[in-house]
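Supplementary material to the annual report.
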Amino acid sequence: AQSVAQPEDQVNVAEGNPLTVKCTYSVSGNPYLFWYVQYPNRGLQFLLKYITGDNLVKGSYGFEAEFNKSQTSFHLKKPSALVSDSALYFCAVRDPNQGGKLIFGQGTELSVKP
Amino acid sequence: NAGVTQTPKFQVLKTGQSMTLQCAQDMNHEYMSWYRQDPGMGLRLIHYSVGAGITDQGEVPNGYNVSRSTTEDFPLRLLSAAPSQTSVYFCASSVGAGGFSYNEQFFGPGTRLTVL
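Predicted assembly:
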C-alpha cells in the first residue's frame, strides 16, 4: 500500500535562512509526488509536483523540491525563508498502480521568525 | 471561475442527526474527492469519484455516503452523526481521472463540523 511520512511535526527557522521540510514515501511503482500548503482557516493550495524527468522541481513562491528515488524522499526546500511562509505543509503521493487515490502525510508546521 | 465551493462553512450537529455537506466545482473536472482533516493525522480520503455516476471508497468511508449525479456536484452525506465525525471536511477536484492522472487537486475552503 502507498504511504507518505513527514517525520517532523514542526520546523522552526529564522527569516532569511534556508528551510527544508522532509517527506518520505512508499509506493509499489513510480510515484507522483506533490506538495501543498495550508494557511490558517484556508483550504490547501498546490505548490509543486514531481511526475518524471528532472529530479529538482520548482514551484510557487520560490519553493523547490528534490526527488531522490534511492532514498524514497521528496524534501521541500527554499533558499531564503520569509515570515509569510509560515503555514502547514503537506506532502502527498499518488501511486499510478493504486487507482486515483492521493494519500497525504500528516503535515509539518513551518514557523519562520523575524 | 469560482473554483471549488463548499457549504456550509460551519455546522454544529447533535449525535444522530443527519446532514449533507455540499461541494461544487465549475472547472469541468472529472475527479472529485472528500477528505477529513484531523490534528496530527493529515488529510484522510473519505470517498472519491472519477466521473458522473461513479464513486468509490477511500480510507475512512464508514458513516458517509456520496453520489455524483452531475460533473459539477459531489455532496457528502452524514447518515447519523457521531462525535468521532467532528472534523474539518475538504472537497477537492482535478482534471483527469484514474491512477494515471498526475494533475494537482484544487481544494475548497472547508467545512468545520462539530458533533455534540
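The first strand of chain B starts at residue 4 and ends at 7.
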